[in-house]
């Protein structure tokens, strides 16, 4: 029977048009490639090429062989990808979230409950999260709305409320509460990669300058050394960089959210302990 590598060589000849160029790309000698194609023809019991001096072209048999070769090679690549994804899914719990804080809280809980599993997490938009859950890219997703899909379990996980962190001398520091509109036009320190929070703040504070910091440590240092406002939440305001600041709650409904944890019903027995552990710990 012919070998898989011979099909790859056949496709290389079609791609690079000459034996010499194909051999160069395949890192073998031209005579070795020529002999391999002759063996393939012998195995298939048909000729695949029209051979002329210093030139080789596919005949009708060869063109049909190329179609089959592409299907076989593509199927093998698909098989490899699916097997790797299947193996990964059996050893990995992938979590997707629309915001960072729920991941920070959920990841150690999941790791404790499943010590033999690798925990992988990232932040995406709501549409990407839902697609990822349906297509098994994620086993768990965290959203700000309860999902009403037939095969999905959706449960309340936690709440998060946004605050503005101000130095005592700031003109707005005396307020008991504020809105994002009250802050519009201010220059504000903000952490990068905060998911949906950033989109809301940009939309409701179009005149503000957001000084985005890539690292939390850099944000903390700037909070300590500057008079610039910054954001905090009840899930993230434990940093000592807020010690000499006033945290004022923001009353906009969009920044006082309930997070829901969502997973496929097939994982009910596996993941229901996460739900109860998480809610009881809040």
TrEMBL record:
Keywords: DNA-binding, Transcription, Transcription regulation
InterPro entries to which the protein is assigned, alphabetical: LysR_HTH_N, LysR_subst-bd, WH-like_DNA-bd_sf, WH_DNA-bd_sf
UniProt domain HTH lysR-type: residue ranges: 2-59
GO cellular component: protein-DNA complex
Stretches assigned to coiled coil: none
GO molecular function: DNA binding; DNA-binding transcription factor activity
PANTHER family: HTH-TYPE TRANSCRIPTIONAL REGULATOR CYNR, TRANSCRIPTIONAL DUAL REGULATOR HCAR-RELATED
Stated name of the protein: Transcriptional regulator
Encoding gene (name): oxyR
């Amino acid at each position: 029977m012919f070998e898989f590598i011979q099909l790859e060589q056949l496709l290389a000849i079609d791609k690079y048009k000459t034996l010499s160029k194909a051999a160069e790309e395949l890192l073998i000698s031209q005579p070795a490639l020529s002999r391999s194609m002759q063996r393939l023809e012998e195995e298939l019991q048909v000729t695949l090429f029209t051979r002329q001096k210093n030139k080789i072209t596919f005949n009708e048999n060869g063109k049909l062989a190329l179609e089959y070769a592409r299907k076989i090679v593509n199927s093998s690549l698909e098989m490899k990808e699916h097997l790797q994804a299947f193996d990964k899914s059996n050893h990995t719990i992938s979590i997707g979230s629309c915001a960072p804080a729920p991941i920070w809280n959920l990841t150690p809980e999941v790791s404790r409950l499943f010590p033999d599993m690798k925990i992988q997490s990232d932040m995406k938009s709501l549409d990407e999260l839902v697609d990822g859950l349906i297509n098994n890219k994620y086993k768990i997703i965290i959203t700000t709305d309860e999902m009403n899909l037939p095969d999905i379990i959706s449960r309340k996980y936690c709440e998060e409320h946004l605050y503005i962190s101000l130095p005592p001398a700031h003109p707005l520091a005396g307020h008991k509460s504020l809105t994002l509109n009250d802050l519009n036009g201010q220059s504000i320190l903000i952490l990068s990669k905060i998911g949906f929070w950033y989109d809301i703040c940009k939309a409701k504070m179009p005149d503000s300058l957001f000084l985005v910091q890539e690292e939390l440590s850099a944000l903390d240092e700037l909070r300590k050394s500057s008079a610039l406002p910054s954001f905090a939440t009840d899930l993230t305001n434990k940093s000592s960089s807020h010690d000499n600041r006033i945290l004022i709650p923001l009353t906009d409904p969009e920044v006082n959210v309930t997070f829901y944890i969502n997973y496929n019903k097939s994982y009910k027995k596996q993941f229901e302990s996460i739900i109860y552990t998480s809610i009881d710990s809040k």
